[in-house]
Amino acid sequence: EAAVTQSPRNKVTVTGGNVTLSCRQTNSHNYMYWYRQDTGHGLRLIHYSYGAGNLQIGDVPDGYKATRTTQEDFFLLLELASPSQTSLYFCASREFSQNTLYFGAGTRLSVL
Amino acid sequence: QQKVQQSPESLIVPEGGMASLNCTSSDRNVDYFWWYRQHSGKSPKMLMSIFSNGEKEEGRFTVHLNKASLHTSLHIRDSQPSDSALYLCAARGNTGNYKYVFGAGTRLKVIA
Predict the structure, then answer these.
(1) Contact B88, B38 (CB under 8 A)
(2) pLDDT (tens digit per residue) in A16-25
(3) Which positions in chain A have a beta carbon within 8 angstroms of at least one beta carbon in chain B?
């Protein structure tokens, strides 16, 4: 099974703080995704990418930047964190020719 | 509003009973559907996929798809306490770069 590693697993920051969430996949998958999960909303797509240097806008991108530096690494950046960004964040990846998303273990972010 | 709507929000079934979960896309630009299962404190994992009209069975799990109405359903027979989880429906957009959009989920509890 595909390995997707997220770090940190937990993060607490203050309003206005700067946060970077990291995601690495070791299966050379083309696509990588960032979702946030909140009760009552399921998984909402923030940004995604189909390769190094590529970035696609998801459904809830406001307040988030993302960067895909290599095939393996996808970062989510919150430059001015707000309490509304308190959430559980999942990274996922998939191979171009396959349709299954493989998820990391998640990062729980609290913005105080 | 979610473009992928799931019902019911929560469901309680007795052990050995049948659980039926529903999912509809209000976005007509989707083609494929998946069901993911997320146990408490874990990340989502793909349970079943369906791409063609009709029915697909895998063990105790059966999925149906009606592409004309963009409706899929998941049925779990002989439900077990280990089936207690959040069930997420996902749909893939068939334009652009194939966004994967999730519904809010159905929380299933199987009681012994």
Answers:
(1) yes
(2) 999 999 999 9
(3) 33, 35, 40-45, 48, 50, 56, 58-59, 90, 99-101, 103-106
